[in-house]
Amino acid sequence: MKTSKKVRMNLCRAMVLMISLVPPVFQATAQAAEKEKPRTGGELVFAVGETPPSYDGHRETTFAMLHPVAPHYSTLLRFDPQNYPKIIGDVAESWSVSKDGLTYTFKIRKGIKFHDGSPLTAKDVKATYDKIIFPPEGVASARKGSYSMVAVTALPTGFGEKGAPDADTVIFRLKHPSASFLANLASPWNFIYKADILANDPRWYEKNIMGSGPFTFVEYVAGSHWVGKKNPNYYMKERPYLDGYKAIFIRDTAPRVAAVRSGQTLIEFRGFNPAARDDIVKALGDKVVVQESPWTCNLTVTVNNEKKPFDDVRVRRALTLAIDRWGASKALSQISVLKFVGGLFRPGPESQFATSEAELAKLAGFGKNIEAARKEARRLLKAAGVPEGFSFTLKNRNVKEPYEVTGVYVIDQWRQIGLNVTHLPQEGGPYFNDFRQGNFETGIDFACDFMDEPDLQLQKFLSSDKSSLNYARYKDSVLDDLYEKQSRATNHKERLKLLRQFEKRVLDEQVYQFHVLWWQRIIPHWAKVRGWKITPNHYVNQDLRDVWLAE
Amino acid sequence: MRQYILKRLLLMIPTLFGVAVLVFLMLRVAPGDIVELKYAGTGAFAPKEAIERERAQLGLDKPLWRQFASWIWGIGRFDFGNSMWTGRPITQEIAIRLELSLELAVMATLVAIFLSIPLGALAALKQDTWVDYLVRIFSIAGLAIPSFWLGIIIILGFLIFFKWLPPLTFTSFWVDPKANLMQLIWPALAVGYRYSAVATRMTRSAVLEVLREDYIRTARAKGLWEKVILVRHALKNALLPVITVIGLEFAFLIGGLVVTEQVFNLNGIGMLFVESITRRDYTMTQALVLLVSFVFIFVNFVVDLIYAWLDPRIRYN
To answer: pLDDT per residue over A33-78, tens digit each?
Structure first.
C-alpha cells in the first residue's frame, strides 16, 4: 500500500514537473476556460511588488501605480486583451485618419459616466491629452516626448469662444505623419480624467481618483493595500464580472510566492522567475495555471564610448562577439527571467518588428558559432592594442535577478577572450548617478516598454544629447536621422527596412551598446482566475474588466 | 526631580537638532537622485525636461541652506512636509505604519520580558545544574538564530503543514483583535525570542552577581525566605542592567525590523525607512531618523527614571 502511494506521489510529481515545462498545455487550458460562461461576483486579490508613488498615470512610470489604479480608468484606445497588439476603442467608439495622415478624428462613445455620475465627453478627452502633451507649468508628464508629433488637440467647431464644442468628437492634428501615434493613444498610462477637475487643479489626480473605469475607488492604505469595487454604471453591460478587487503590496519575492501558494493572493501580474513558478506549480498542482510570453523588457550592455579603449569600435565589437547569447538563453532561462535572443526588437510571433533568426545571425555577437566569434574577438582586441588580461569594471544594479545573474554571465564570457572584469553591483541611487555622469566603463542597463514600438525601443540608441535614456555617451546623426525617418514611415515595409538599417548600425557597425537577452514573462496563477490573458508586458490589460472567478 | 525631568526634556532639543543637521548633510552627500530613480528606475523614457521640472517641484534646485532652513522651519511648526516620493504628508505616512511597529515592539518586548526574567533568574539560582544548561542552550540558540530566519521557518511551517499564512494586511487591534493577533503574534515570537535571549543572559549574570553581595548574605542570615530574598532584594537590584538592555532593544525595534517586516510582509516603519533611503526620499528619511532618534532619547530618559525607582540610592538632583 505504501509503495503504491509512493509511486502515485512520484507520478504526480513527474506530471506536475512535465506540465510546468510545457506551458502551452496550460495556455490551452486557459484558452479553453475562456469559452466558459463567465461567472459574476467575487473579489480578486492580487499581489503587487511595489507601492505606487502617486495615483497619476500621466506622471508615473511604474507598474506599481498601474496595477492597482488602472481598473478605475478608461483610456481613449486600448490593446485588445485577447488579441495583442490589435488596437480597439475604449471610450473611442470609432476613429478615422485623413489621407495625409495628419488628422485623427475620434468619435467618443455615448453614455460613459465618471464615477461621480457626470458624463464623459470629448471635452474630457481633450483636457486629458492636453495635460499629457502640453502639460501646464508645474505638472509632470512622463510621456510627453512620445507625442512630439502632435500640433494641436481640438474639439470641432470648438476653436475660439463662439462655436459650441462637439461633445462627441475630438481631433488630433499632427505636424507630420507618425507610425506610432495611434498605438500611443492605446497607452495604458493615458487615463481619461475629468476636464472640470483638471481645470481647477491639474495636480488633483496625483492624490485622488475619479475615473470612468470598471471599478470605483474604495480605499488605499499606504504601503499595505488598495481596494476597488464594481462600477455599476460601467458603460459595458455585464462588466465587470468581479464585485471588486484588492491589491496587496508585497515587496519581497519570497512572501509574494508564499502569498500565491497559500491562496491569499490569486495572481501577481508582473511575473515570477522559473524557480518561483516551479515552486508554486509543485505546491498547487492543477489548481494553478501558468501563462508565459516573451516580454518587452531586456538587459543591455552599455559601453562608455568616451572612455579608452572603448572608444574604439574594434573593442566594442570584440565585447559583443564574446557573448554566447544562444548558450545564455539555455542556461539563464532556467534560473532567471532572461530567455530570448533578439535584436533591438522583442522576438516572438506577435512582434511585428522582430528580427528573424537568419537576419540576426548576420549581426556581430548573434551568430551560433561562438568559437569563431571569440577567435575574431581576440583578433580585434589585439589589433586595437588591448593586452591579454586587460582589466576594467562592469557596473550593475544590486538586484540579484536578472541583473547580477547577467553581470556574472557577461564577465565570464569576456574572461574567455582574455579580459579581466570586475563586477560592481550598486544600489539604485549611485548606479543611476554614475551612469548619468559617465562614471563607468561598462555597465548593465535595462529597458521595459508598454508595447512593441520602435519609437519607444530605439530611444535608448539615439545620440545621448537627444535621449536621456542613452548612457553610452555617443552622438550619431545617422541614427538620429534614421529614427526620424522610421518614425514618420507609415508604410510598414518601408519602416522595417529603415529599422533593419538602424539595427545593423547600432549592433554591428558601431556596436555602441548591445542587448544580452530579452525577458520571459511568467505568470503562475490560480486556475479559478479566468478571463485574463497574458500580454508581452506587465503594463497593458490591467483594468480587470474581463476577469472573473470560477469559484 | 521635577527640575531634572525638565532639564532632560529640554536637552532633547539640541540633541535632535544635531541629529537633524547630520542626517540632512549625510543624505545630500550620498549619491543618487529621487527623480532619476522615479523615472529611469523603471526603465521608462522620461525627457530631461520632465526630470528637471520634477526636481524644481520638489525644491531640489534650491541652495542647500534654503532647503535646510525651510525644513527646520517646518519642524518648528510640527510640519514635516510631504514625502518626495508619494507627495503625501509625512505624518500621515508614518502614522499608518507606527501603530503596527509600536504594537509589534510592545508584543516582542512582552515576549522577551516574560521569557527572560524568570528564565534568567532560574538559571542563576540553579547555576551549573541541568536547568542552567538548558536555559543557556535556549538563550545561546536565540542569540545565534536571526529573527528573520526564524520567521521564514515559521512561515514555511505554516505553508507546508497547514497550507496557511498569517494575514498579509494589518488590522488594528481595536477593530478586530483576532485578525490583529493572527498577524502579529508570529513576528512578535520570532523577534521576541532573539530579544529574550539577550535579556536572559543579562538577567542570569546580573542575578548571579547580586546573589554574592553582602546584603543578600545578611538577608539570608536574618532567616528571610529564599523567595523573598530573590524577588525583593536580588531581582530588583539585578534588573538595572536588564532594563537598559530592554529599553535599547525596544527603541531599536521601532525602526530596525526591516527583514522581519519583509518576511511577514508587515507595513511597518522599518520597511518605510529602507524604502525611503533607497529612493532618496530626503524628507521622509529625515523625518524617520528624527523619529527613531527621539524614541531612543525618550526611552533612555524613561530608563533613567526607572533606575531611580528601582534603586533608592539613585537620586537625580
So the answer is: 556 899 999 999 999 999 998 999 998 888 999 999 999 999 999 9
Task: Give the per-residue pLDDT at B58.
Answer: 87
Q: How far apart are CA A435 and CA A472, in angstroms?
A: 8
Q: Is A204 exposed, middle or buried (0-12, 13-18, 19+ CB in 10 A)?
A: middle
- How far is B47 from chain A, CA to nearest CA, in Å? 6
**Measured between CB atoms, which of A142, A447, A448 is closest to B46?**
A142
Residue A39 DSSP label:
P
Q: Kindly report the nearest CA distance between residue B259 and chain A, in angstroms.
A: 10
* Number of residues written out for chain A: 551
pLDDT-derived band at A132, boundaries 50, 70, 90: very high
Residue A348 CA to residue A356 CA, distance in Å, equals 9
- Answer yes or no: is pLDDT of A280 > 60: yes
Sign of CA dihedral B241, B243, B244, B248: positive
**Does A453 or A159 have the greater pLDDT score?**
A453
For residue A169, the cross-strand partners are A107
- Dihedral angle of Cα A66, A72, A78, A84, to the nearest 10 degrees: 60
Q: H-type helices in B126-225, by residue range?
A: 130-144, 147-157, 177-211, 214-221
Q: Residue B82 carries which DSSP code?
A: B
Query: ipTM value of the model?
Result: 0.87
Q: What is the pLDDT of residue A160?
A: 42
Do residues A172 and A156 lie in contact, with contact meaning Cβ atoms separated by under 8 Å?
no
Is 0.80 surpassed by the pTM of this model?
yes
With CA atoms as reference, the chain B residue closest to A222 would be B93
pLDDT tops 60 at residue A96 = yes
Burial class for A486, CB neighbours closer than 10 Å (0-12, 13-18, 19+): buried
Q: What angle do CA A107, A109, A112 make, to 5 degrees?
A: 145
Amino acid at B60: L
Return the SS3 of A238: coil
Q: What is the mean pLDDT of chain A?
A: 90
Contacts of A72 (CB under 8 A, 6+ apart): A115, A191, A209, A211, A213, A215, A216, A217, A228
What type of residue sits at position A495?
R
Question: Residue A286: is its pLDDT beyond 50?
Answer: yes
Contact yes or no for B41 and A62 at CB 8 A: yes
Instruction: Give the H or E element holding residue B21.
Output: helix B2-29
Residue with cell 464644442: A165
- Does A2 score more than 50 pLDDT? no
Q: How confident is the model at residue B42 (pLDDT cuts 50, 70, 90)?
A: low
